[in-house]
Design brief:
Layout: H1 3-6, E1 13-18, E2 32-35, H2 37-52, H3 70-84, E3 92-96, E4 103-111, E5 117-120, H4 122-128, H5 152-157, E6 160-165, E7 173-178, H6 188-199, E8 202-204, E9 208-213, E10 216-226, E11 231-233, E12 240-243, H7 248-262, E13 276-278, E14 283-288, E15 293-298, E16 307-313, E17 320-327, E18 342-344, E19 350-355, E20 367-374, H8 382-386, E21 389-397, E22 420-422, E23 429-431, H9 435-445, E24 446-448, E25 455-457, H10 461-464, E26 467-468, E27 475-476, H11 479-489, E28 493-494, E29 501-502, H12 505-512, E30 520-522, E31 529-531, H13 543-548, H14 552-557, E32 561-563, E33 570-572, H15 576-588, H16 627-630, H17 643-658, H18 672-677, H19 688-700, H20 715-729, E34 732-733, E35 736-737, E36 744-745, E37 749-750, H21 754-763, H22 768-778, H23 782-785
Parallel strand pairs: 1-5, 2-4, 7-12, 13-15
Antiparallel strand pairs: 1-6, 2-5, 3-4, 3-6, 7-10, 8-11, 9-10, 14-21, 15-20, 16-19, 16-21, 17-18, 17-20, 22-23, 24-25, 26-27, 28-29, 30-31, 32-33, 34-37, 35-36
Helix pairs in contact: 2-3, 17-19, 20-21, 21-22
Length: 787
């Protein structure tokens, strides 16, 4: 009888005053509530009182007429009381608002509220109709202590809430209906799992759930639950989720909105290009409208070389930006102005991003995502912004010997010719015979910037708009470039996923691609695309996090355990890679196994198991045979010279050649049956003289353990030895893919020695596929043992 079967349903209810919202901590989220400490005492008392009414005996030996059985029964009942004082997990409650009759199920956060009060989150308040739905916790109010002292008069004036404790079954199915059309998420499974796991303990039929997805928020109506139609628990359960529209009209509208979003007329007059795949050294032309993005992806390149990504604007009066992000398990989104790894947002006509092959961000990169953004022209008219800007995009391998920097200026220290002289104004080298005329003209018409030493015409628009930033080394020649620089580099920005305040756009992009909790990753343990940090995950500065190289979500998710497929030990998921490295080290350091000297036998002398354990033992006989093959030759007589053993081997060989084993599977070449079935001596029988001529060389080499012995064996053993011979002859190329770049590196052909193949087939009872798996897990290859 389980504890749950023995315990009756816990019954407890009360009516409490609802704490004001400003007296409830802002960290209280989802469907969790805060109860007073007295509620915990009452719940424990209710759980204990259930057991006290139990009258059935708790021990099988209890006899009311036997006083010697009373002590054991009394101890069993005391242990039962102590065990039943633990409350059910999870502890869930049924909340009823007496003012409007609304019902909601919730979980418990803690027992620390003021007496006779209950603290509710913003979600619970809205769901029960206690607060105005348009109002809510915007996250800006300060966290007040929920233990605010309230007198009895003020508590009685607060609205009341009825709280019942009620256990809920674990949910298996939920149907969600979107309240608005046009929802489009890349991974609904990851989005729902992360939000429901961090925020909710229960789900109530008919409640509204808001799921954040980046800058968007998706609102759903819970419209169907199993196994309980009213409410279910979400703790320690696998939940099947079905998302369907409220009506056919909403479904049609959603399809229309998604189709409109995905439609990008490539190459048309008014639309941005559709993007696509890039090829190294191919020139890609395209166009992009203001404030829009064109996304490209580079899937194959040589990982041993640096990349040079160049974007050239054809329209000189339009400004574009270039963003690059490696796509892999650590980066899952396309680059944007607030989320990119490499970028060039300068005002130059040619943008360039150089990506080194040794950059740590390129580790594990499956592809390289490149985005071109049309800078929003603030002063341009709406018609001018609708005209797309044309560009050329090219990815090439960087030539370290050539200097491709577009900003190459002359230095005053550069040497000049013998018949040349530098102008005192513009510092250009001019012929000595014309230097006087040049300087007069230059002083009247040109001006030199004292900071950047660039020369401008005094009446030119470039000089009138020339600027230098007082905070850094940036400069430009247009008012638009100054406005762009100020907006990108000197305007604070707020992260939409956390409370981080960035100094500028590059700082925000660095935060979003490194320590932002909302950064999407592909978890290597649950294989879902999830944010890298949840509420209950460790902080980024924890020692374990820094040493492991994992994200906070992976640290928490990797704490789950699994069984090692090699040794069957229980190992944490995040420790499995280190655990397998120990197995690999043991595999490489293993000495070669000893197999039976009989060429037809598929057994080892030591014996192995499916988990790779070797039962090494001292040799039991001087011939190097397994116990099964040596059994017919064993006698207890004293034979120091081995002459009697030689005679027994000779008689066995003669019996095999003259009489045979008469087994249809035999393929022994020193056996009449095996020679006949193998196509040797099919017409005539061997005589004793001919048989001895065959046997004598084998007997002369009997003491040489490197030579084979040929005894008949049973069919499974012979089959395993034959399969081991074929398995040992197999070779495979050791190749490794170059991090998703599509270029293979050829290695050395490898295989396994016959000893390991015999051991693998013996451990796996002759199953060839399982034997190959055993070899990969426990046996070193010939290439590895030869190093």
């Amino acid at each position: 009888m389980t504890e749950h079967d023995h315990r009756q349903n816990l019954k407890w209810s009360t009516q409490l005053s609802i704490l004001p919202q400003d007296a409830t901590p802002s960290t209280l989220k989802g469907d969790r509530i805060i109860l007073p400490p007295s509620a915990l005492e009452q719940l424990l008392s209710a759980a204990t009182s259930i057991v006290s009414t139990e009258v059935q005996p708790q021990t099988t030996s209890f006899d009311p007429y036997n006083p010697y059985s009373f002590a054991a029964e009394r101890q069993a009942r005391e242990n039962l009381v102590e065990r039943q004082q633990h409350l059910p997990h999870p502890l869930t409650f049924r909340l009823v608002n007496p003012a409007n009759g609304r019902i909601l199920y919730a979980g418990i956060r803690e027992f620390s509220a003021a007496e006779n009060t209950v603290g509710l989150s913003s979600f619970v308040r809205t769901a029960l109709g206690i607060d105005d739905p348009t109002k809510g916790d915007n996250g800006t109010r300060e966290d007040s202590s929920h233990s605010v002292e309230l007198d009895s008069t003020s508590i009685e004036a607060l609205p009341r809430l009825t709280v019942h404790v009620q256990e809920l079954p674990k949910g298996t199915f939920v149907k969600l209906r979107p309240l608005e059309a046009g929802y489009d998420a890349d991974d609904w499974k990851a989005l729902l799992e992360q939000h429901l796991h961090d925020t909710f303990t229960t789900l109530t039929n008919g409640e509204e759930v808001t799921i954040p997805a980046g800058k968007e928020k998706f609102r759903f109506l819970v419209h169907g639950l199993k196994p309980n139609e009213e409410a279910v628990s979400l703790v320690d359960t696998d939940l099947e989720v079905d998302i369907e529209p409220l009506s056919e009209e909403q479904a049609r509208e959603t399809l229309h909105i998604l189709a409109k979003k995905s439609t990008r007329p490539p190459g048309t007059k008014d639309g941005s290009s559709a993007g696509g795949r890039l090829i190294v050294d191919n020139n890609e032309t395209g166009q992009v409208r203001s404030s829009e993005y064109v996304d490209y992806e580079l899937q194959a390149w040589d990982a041993s070389q640096d990349l040079d990504i160049e974007l050239t604007t054809i329209n000189e009066d339009r400004d574009l930006d270039l963003f690059v992000t490696p796509f892999g398990s650590k980066h899952r989104v396309s680059p944007r102005d607030d989320d990119y790894v490499f970028g060039d947002t300068s005002s130059r006509a040619t943008k360039r991003v150089k990506v080194s092959h040794t950059n740590v961000e390129m580790d594990g990169a499956e592809a390289l995502r490149i985005s071109v953004r049309g800078w929003p022209e603030g002063e341009a008219t709406k018609d001018e912004q609708s005209v797309p800007a044309h560009y050329n995009l090219k990815v090439s391998y960087e030539d370290s010997e050539s200097d491709k920097s577009p900003n190459v200026t002359l230095s005053e220290s550069d040497p000049v010719g013998t018949d040349e002289e530098r102008c005192s104004n513009c510092h250009q080298a001019v012929p000595k015979r014309t230097v006087f005329l040049h300087q007069n003209f230059c002083l009247r018409n040109n001006v030199v910037c004292p900071q950047c030493r660039n020369v401008f015409q005094k009446t030119s628009e470039a000089w009138s708009n020339h600027w230098h930033c007082p905070h850094d080394d940036a400069f430009g020649n247009t008012s638009a470039s100054k406005a762009k620089h100020d907006q990108l580099m000197h305007t604070a920005r707020h992260c939409s996923f956390c409370d981080y305040e960035a100094f500028n756009s590059p700082d925000l992009a660095h935060h979003r691609t490194t320590l932002c909790p909302g950064k999407l990753i592909l978890c290597q343990f649950c294989h879902l695309q999830v944010p890298q940090k949840g509420e209950d995950d460790p902080e980024f500065d924890s020692a374990e996090l820094l040493l492991s190289g994992l994200t906070p979500h992976e640290i928490s998710d990797g704490a789950r355990t699994t069984e090692c497929h090699l040794c069957s030990k229980i190992v944490r998921l995040r420790d499995m890679s280190t655990h397998l490295k120990h197995h690999d080290l043991q595999r490489l350091s293993r000495p070669k196994l000893r197999i039976c000297r009989n060429a037809n036998c598929g057994r080892t002398i030591d014996g192995v198991s499916r988990t790779g354990e070797v039962r090494a033992s001292a040799p039991r006989n001087e011939l190097g045979l397994c116990d099964t093959c040596f059994g017919p030759l064993y006698v207890s007589q004293y034979d120091p010279d081995g002459k009697a053993l030689r005679r027994r081997v000779e008689r066995k060989y003669l019996t095999q050649l003259l009489t045979g084993c008469n087994q249809p599977w035999c393929r022994n070449e020193i056996c009449k049956s095996g020679r006949k079935q193998g196509g040797v001596d099919t017409e005539s029988n061997l005589g004793s003289k001919d048989a001895m001529a065959i046997i004598r060389p084998l007997l002369d080499r009997l003491r040489d353990l490197q030579t084979s012995i040929y005894f008949c064996v049973d069919e499974p053993s012979q089959k395993r030895r034959l399969l081991a011979t074929f398995l040992s002859a197999e070779t495979f190329d050791v190749t490794s893919n170059t991090k998703g770049k599509g270029k293979a590196v050829e290695g050395t052909s490898a295989g396994w020695d016959i000893e390991w193949c015999v051991a693998a087939l013996e451990a796996e009872s002759g199953d060839l596929d399982k034997a190959r798996g055993w070899l990969k897990g426990f046996a070193p290859t010939r290439a590895e043992t030869s190093r």
